[in-house]
Amino acid sequence: MQDQVAIARPLPGPALRPPIANLRKGFAFLLVLACVVAAWEGYKLMAGATGGRVPFTDVALPVRGDDKSMPHVWDILAALFSPRQRGSDELLFPFLLKNALFTWREAATGFLGGSTLGFLLGVAFARSKLLERGLMPYVVISQTVPLIAIAPMVVIWGSAVGWPAWVSVSLIAAYLTFFPVTINTLRGLLSPPATATELMRSYAATPSQMLWKLQVPAALPYVFTALKVSATASVIGAIIGELPAGLNEGLGRSLLTFSYYYISGPEKLYGAILVSALLGIAFVGLVSGVERLVVRRGGAGG
Amino acid sequence: MAESMVSIDGVHMVFNQGGADEVTALSGIDLEIAPGDFVSLIGPSGCGKSTLLRLIGDLLSPTSGTVTVNGKPASRARLDRDYAMVFQQATLLEWRKVIRNVELPLEIMGMDPRARRAKAREMLDLVELGGFADHYPWQLSGGMQQRVAIARALSFDPALLLMDEPFGALDEMTRERLQMELMRIWQRTGKTIVFVTHSIPEAVFLSTRVVVMSPRPGRIVETIDIDLPRPRTFDTREDPRFFELLTQVREALRGVEVEVP
Ligand SMILES: Nc1ncnc2c1ncn2[C@@H]1O[C@H](COP(=O)(O)OP(=O)(O)O)[C@@H](O)[C@H]1O
Ligand SMILES: [Mg+2]
Q: Less CB within 10 Å around the terminal CB: N or C of chain B?
């Protein structure tokens, strides 16, 4: 059966990756997950055995391995499927998922706006060297200003103008999104070899034909690489943006709340962290899925 | 002067003029190419063959002198799509299937989808790649890719083909097959072809005239008429006259290579 699959695939582009490769990828993911769990529990075991010291020394371990600092993996999982707070009949996991969805909507809005802006900036820079020279330094500087400083400012401005709080959060997500997209779009648009550009000129192609028939298709793999980076960045931006925004919903809110109750129930905070990570992974997975539909090519050198 | 397909008059080409890296690539080039001619440009590497081809194609502008193509300035001829270019690298767009690569110029010229699909199929049949329409470029060998590039160049029926070492990256066997194929196409379509090559036998076998160039600054040192009978066949390569002409071109090139080691 495997051999048949191998022979009967005339166009083994990424779009048509055989199921066996997906299986292998899934297996690798599970293997790494198992290793992380084993390392976590192994560390706890070791810390327990040595009383919180590096073995055979007097040096204290960076993190104490007790159940308050590092709950057992199964305790975290159990917490996810217990009531989110005493007396509530809502389990923690669906509660976190609901908040993750709220955060994802903010992140995705920012992601769409930010990557559109990023793409347009990339196109503008590819068109005009002057524009690139003039604006690029500011684009770079914008990314060196700490998000912690910007997030409250955006929220304050937003509420002064009267926007709903989620708009400010999306703006912060967009702020983290556009930069990688700009850089990679520019690189990708300039990636076709000189002969390809000459070929288009020999057909008397208009600048817009040059852009849409040569440069943009050539840039797509670069753009998608950036979009995957930006997908996680937008989630982080949204979570951080939620903190000063005073929203009652969202993963940022959950993380903040559960960190208050860390001493009594650290598992819940770890559960929220886990769900935040899952949200990032799911978003990147979504972008990869779109990439597989849009970018059709393959073979050596891709 | 509409009787010339290409007319080059007193062309000088200087790159980075005034800079520390100034290069005089071409100096005092005069060349007339008649319709239906197959002219090969041969000369040592760096002597300006590609530059000359790009000047004809209006991909570069001469520092001085004029280039006339199909009776009009080269820039006008480019806008009128009077020529097609074929490079050493096939330069196929990797995200397009073979057929869509052949359609590319027609698409840019605004031909309607059904007509251009039919035209592209016809061109693929001409280069005997009809069965590969739905393959991606990377699934084809180098020789097949180059045939696709030729089909693409012929698709919009330009009067002039500019070919820059189109077979330079291919193995000897593929090369000879493609030479025969190009001969066949040239005879059938009556195109004018300007063909850059490093290979003396290739130049002599294919051409009606061989233009020998000297390096930096590139000049034309000799133009040799190739009076071999047509159609050229595998037997042409065994014709004594073929060997005489090889020697003649080689001698012309030798004179050139003494000047610059
Ligand atoms: N765009 C360019 N800028 C500067 N120098 C160039 C450029 N293109 C070609 N040259 C120079 O012009 C000379 C001729 O180049 P080229 O036409 O490519 O030679 P050939 O095709 O005969 O090998 C070389 O010395 C090369 O370095
Ligand atoms: Mg060259």
A: C
Is A54 in contact with A61 (CB distance < 8 Å)? yes
Find the domain containing A252 and state its range: 82-301
The token duo for B80 is: 């009128």
The percent of chain A in helix, strand and coil, each rounded to the nearest 5, is 75, 0, 25
Query: Is the Cβ of B157 closer than 8 Å to some Cβ of chain A?
Result: no
Atom number, ligand 1, closest to the C-alpha of residue B215: 22
Instruction: State the pTM of this model.
Output: 0.86
CATH of the domain at A248: 1.10.3720.10
Residue A6 lies in a domain: no
Least Cα separation, residue A187 to chain B (angstroms): 17
Contacts B80 to A, Cβ<8 Å: 204
Domain-embedded: residue A100:
yes
Q: Are A254 and A96 in contact (CB under 8 A)?
A: yes
Q: What's chain A's average pLDDT?
A: 87
Looking at the structure, tell me whether residues A106 and A252 fall in a common domain: yes
The ligand minimizing its distance to the Cα of B47 is 1
State pLDDT tens for residues A87-142: 888 888 999 999 999 999 999 999 999 999 999 999 999 999 999 999 999 989 98
Give the number of the atom of ligand 1 that is nearest the alpha carbon of residue B51. Answer: 17
ipTM for the assembly? 0.92
In a domain, A179, yes or no: yes
Cα B23 to middle of ligand 1, angstroms: 8
Domains of chain B in sequence order: 1-82+160-166+191-261 (3.40.50.300)
Q: Which residue in A202, A204, A217 is closest to B95 by CB distance? A: A217
What is the CA B236 to chain-centroid distance, rounded?
21
Least confident segment among A121-135, A241-255, B51-65: A241-255
